[in-house]
Design brief:
The protein has helices spanning 57-60, 84-101, 126-131, 177-193, and strands at residues 2-7, 21-24, 29-30, 64-66, 70-71, 136-144, 150-158, 163-172, 201-209, 216-223, 230-231, 238-244, 250-257, 260-267, 272-277, 283-288, 294-301, 304-311, 319-320, 328-333, 339-344, 351-356, 363-364, 371-377, 384-390, 392-398, 406-407, 414-419, 425-431, 438-444, 450-452, 458-467. The chain is mainly β and 469 residues long. Strands 1, 2, 3, 4, 5, 6, 7 and 8 form an eight-stranded mixed sheet that branches. It has a four-stranded antiparallel sheet with strand order 11-10-9-32, with no helix packed on it. β26 (392-398) and β27 (406-407) form a beta hairpin. The chain is globular and about 75 Å long. Residues 1-27 and 32-55 have low confidence and may be disordered.
Length: 469
């Protein structure tokens, strides 16, 4: 079912608005509003706000107040947050944390802010918020429905203009209440930044336990903020380098079952897995094509390591894409699927190369000193993230032509970058010096906003999936 977002004019920082948005988002369903909303102001033709991903100066001082979501009746729910009143507070806390942790905004609330009544959600007391120097106001509601379903509404207001900018409503099962909060945060983020959403997404990673020389590595998944953690494999065989399929239904990963490297696809709907390839030789780094039809992987044979592709359905004859002396590992497709970025030591040490999707026109793009590894193409298509090795291991980005290289981190060992769905944030794993314990971190493209993601155990090889359908 489709969710309709109504957009009104925005005039505090930049004038202009976007056309109405519609997104399909099962099982998060759209719902009618609790009461008739104020009519939207006419939309401008400029398509909304435009900001660069590396410039956050306009937004740091934007006062965004987020209040506890109101309810029409405090009744029990089937959620792990408690009654509708407690759930309303939890929803607003998730929204505030999402907007704060992305590094672009500095919201306040819900602690310490007035709590609106249910009747005030769509009719804010603007003078109260003006007195608190709030520029933007996020309010919402939660209702318990039949069959245990939860209905959540979310509204963004411009306090100075006394106007509603955008609203959304979602109906979710109790287990998915956090998705409604992420959808609300995505709506606010997209309306104010002009960028694509990313909070309602998931991360696959490798959960690590045990001593450094005998570590158990299991496939695990979690929400973008670290919640709803779940192990997918038992740890009887080592799991490595997971990647979500473009449609979110599967996870591709490498498994060392009985010491044999094998490429599996784990079906999240049925909790079953299918063998895609078992080559009999050392195999590395399986990756999806953007259309989900192909799987890239690297295989060592005859003293060389080359990149191959095979149908994601399994079977068939693998096609070798590289054939040069040395080690070529990769890769990552460009968003349109026309090119592949990969690493190779054919020039004497690890460097970054790009080739056409069929293996033609292979060319080196990294010429800035040191070694370069684990390249990952941005979903925007405008940058490539990679691990730069010059003494320490650091996360860096460059253009697809190799220019404009910038370091985003400066630690002892940061590696294996993966992009957020909107291409603004990069996740990676950081290994602690001496202890060897790994953890997942993220940094935005300014390099100034860095944070550690919560995981129950050690964590490596993160893979950020697309926005959930």
């Amino acid at each position: 079912m489709k969710k309709i977002i109504h957009i009104a004019a925005f005039g505090l920082l930049l004038s202009g608005s976007a056309a109405a948005l519609a997104q399909s988002a099962p099982p998060v369903q759209s719902v009618p509003e609790a009461a008739p909303a104020a009519p939207a102001a006419p939309a401008d033709e400029d398509g909304g706000l435009q900001v660069t991903v590396s410039d956050d100066s306009d937004w740091q001082d934007l006062g965004i107040a987020i209040t506890t979501f109101a309810t029409d009746a405090d009744v029990p729910t089937g959620t792990n947050a408690g009654s509708t009143a407690a759930l309303g507070r939890a929803l607003s806390q998730v929204v505030a944390a999402d907007l704060k942790n992305n590094g672009l905004f500095k919201p306040s609330g819900p602690d310490g802010l007035p709590q609106p009544a249910y009747s005030q959600v769509q009719t804010p007391d603007f003078p109260v918020w003006s007195a608190r120097a709030a520029n933007m106001l996020v309010q919402g509601y939660v209702r318990a429905g039949s069959g245990g379903q939860i209905t959540v509404g979310c509204y963004l207001y411009d306090v100075a203009l006394k106007q509603q900018l955008v609203k959304g409503g979602w109906q979710v099962p109790p287990s998915d209440w956090r998705r409604a909060a992420h959808k609300c945060a995505d709506m606010v983020y997209s309306r104010l930044s002009g960028e694509s959403p990313f909070f309602d997404s998931k991360i696959a990673y490798i959960a690590e336990t045990g001593p450094k020389d005998h570590r158990m590595k299991r496939l695990a998944i979690m929400d973008s903020d670290g919640a709803n953690h779940r192990y997918l494999t038992s740890g009887q065989s080592t799991a490595l380098t997971p990647r979500y399929s473009p449609d979110y239904s599967k996870i591709l990963y490498l498994s060392y079952l009985n010491g044999q490297p094998s490429i599996y696809v784990y079906d999240l709907g049925s909790n079953t897995q299918k063998l895609i390839a078992r080559t009999g030789n050392p195999t590395m780094a399986p990756r999806w094509s953007p259309d989900g039809k192909w799987v890239l992987y690297s295989m060592a044979s005859g003293g060389n390591t080359d990149i191959y592709r095979i149908s994601s359905a399994g079977g068939g004859t693998p096609q070798r894409l590289t054939n040069t002396p040395g080690i070529s590992i990769g890769g990552s497709y460009s968003p349109d699927g026309s090119q592949i970025v990969f690493e190779s030591d054919r020039s004497g040490n690890q460097q970054i190369y790009v080739m056409n999707a069929d293996g033609s026109n292979q060319r080196r793009i990294s010429f800035f000193g040191g070694r370069a590894a684990t390249p990952e193409w941005s979903p925007r298509g405008d940058q490539i993230a990679f691990t730069h090795v010059v003494g320490n291991l650091r996360i860096a980005v460059m253009s697809p032509s190799g220019g404009g290289m910038r370091h985003l981190t400066d630690s002892w060992q940061d590696e294996a970058p993966t992009w957020s769905p909107n291409g603004r944030i990069i996740q990676f794993f950081r290994t602690a010096k001496g202890a060897g314990t790994a953890s997942i971190w993220q940094v935005d493209l300014t390099g100034r906003n860095e944070r550690k993601l919560p995981t129950p155990v050690g964590a490596s090889d993160p893979a950020w999936g697309p926005v959930r359908p």
